[in-house]
């Protein structure tokens, strides 16, 4: 109690000294304003432009476009760590949506953060994906969904900056990047990779292939959930999202997401 009172007092003090602005559009007030927050409460299947072979069924809480881009950037690169609350809530929403389509919607979920490179963690002074993972897991548990965060993947070796690389070059660049920490791999749970953003899908594909290698044959596919996904460009043929075994995107019951808080609902 004393801790939460102190935290509230601290937040009020910060608001006095540094009036908060919406991280999406910059208007004074909530950290995500009532116009921007709903942009991260619109779950959809992520559809990278060229579905990489093995791309896991992935749900995003919103499109990586418009005000969502600066909001995620403020959290990731500009140290606005308080955005872990609404962005973590958005991620939880995406996790519930992808779990509903899994064919095993009662299984506990294990959220596996896509590991950030040690250099990026050093540069930022924090691991923002782990922060999101912890927040999303707490949101899910509060909504009655058994969930834990479990960093079973780790980075190894160095990778080149992927800017300017083609899809196949990105994949080659990422091959061997991730290693599975066998001692920490949980059994019997639905594995959901989590990340802030998916763009080409190369990172999620590589991470999912490493994670899936540790699953028993015939088990459910590795799923993924992200805060935001690059929107499908108009005119691009819709890819078939049901390519991953028993995952049934058509069964996603969006109305069942109401138990979760949403980004901005408590802001
Ligand atoms: Zn806004």
Task: Explain the overall architecture.
The strands form two sheets. Strands 1-2-8-7-3-4 form a six-stranded mixed sheet, sandwiched between helices. Strands 5-6 form a two-stranded antiparallel sheet. The model is unreliable at 240-246 and 250-256 (pLDDT under 50). α3 crosses α5 and α6 (167-174) crosses α7. The protein has a domain at 43-159 and 168-233: 3-Layer(aba) Sandwich (Rossmann fold). The protein has 267 residues and is an alpha/beta fold. It has seven helices and eight strands. The longest helix is centred in the middle third of the chain and has 17 residues, at 84-100. β7, α7 and β8 (223-229) form a beta-alpha-beta unit. Helices cover 31% and strands 14% of the residues. It is globular, with a radius of gyration of 18 Å. Residues 22, 24-25, 27, 33, 35-36, 67 line the site of zinc ion.
Name of the CATH architecture of the domain at 43-159 and 168-233: 3-Layer(aba) Sandwich
Q: Give Rg in angstroms.
A: 18 Å
Largest sheet: 6 strands, mixed
Order of helices and strands: HEEHHEHHEEHEEHE
Give the integer mean of the pLDDT values: 82
Distance between the termini: 20 Å
Shape, per Cα inertia axes: globular
Looking at this protein, list some descriptive labels.
31% helix; Rossmann fold; alpha/beta; 7 helices; 267 residues; binds zinc ion
